[in-house]
Amino acid sequence: MPKYIIVFLLLSAAFISGCSLNPFRWNTHQDLFLLSPATGPESILLQQKLTFVAGGKQQQFLLVTDIKAEKFKVLVLMPTGMTVLKMSYDGAEFLQQNMTDITIPAEQIMAVMQFALWPEAALMNRYSAPDGWLLALDNTSRQLSENNRLKLDVQYKEDSVLIKNIQDHYLVVIQSLDTGAL
Would the pLDDT of 78 be above 80? Predict the structure, then answer.
């Protein structure tokens, strides 16, 4: 199973569940960047299960992700099928529809998903050392540090992707349900 599919699901679930389960405040460190869909992976439609763990609590979500060169779209659902969040980014405009009364850092959720899914070249072009970023990338993991402090740790396993957000104190596990090339 392609690692980017698993990573994307994990990130989406972690951010959304973290907002509802964990009363922590999002840190004010440098935000991650939204990356152009044109620099992303090939067109694909992903259906994934995301498990978010924070503060000793766990919550699950379903994700439907549509990646195309012209637009990156994400739909986040409760296991019951209720829509929680819709996000899209075309490289210029980020749009979101939050169906909850909880403030969700949707742009940062999408940026974390992109960090896990986008090709290494796109990451290296955006996260540069002169700006305080350090990337460690290989076939089984990705790490992003800001000013020599680990911020994100992504581990690609055979059947899942684990995303640890060290800065915001949560873990996301993403498992693929279905994948379709577009």
Answer: yes
- Whether the CB-CB separation of 61 and 177 falls below 8 Å is answered with no
Side-chain half-sphere CA neighbours of 131 within 13 A: 13
Q: How much is the pLDDT for 31?
A: 86
CB neighbours of 123 closer than 8 A, spacing ≥ 6?
35, 115, 135, 137, 142
In 55-157, DSSP assigns E strands to: 57-67, 72-77, 83-89, 94-98, 133-137, 141-146, 149-156
Rounded Cα gap, residues 9 and 20, in angstroms: 17
Strand order in the sheet with 44-54: 94-98, 83-89, 72-77, 57-67, 44-54, 170-181, 161-165, 149-156, 141-146, 133-137
> Any idea where the domains of the chain sit in the sequence?
3-181
127-132 own/partner pairs: CB under 8 Å, 24+ apart: 127/33, 132/30
Instruction: Reply yes or no on whether the pLDDT at 9 is more than 50.
Output: no
Q: Are strands 133-137 and 94-98 parallel, antiparallel or unpaired?
A: unpaired
The residue with tokens 């490289």 is 91
Residue 136 corresponds to which tokens in the numbers above? 């460690």
CATH code for the part of the protein at 3-181: 2.50.20
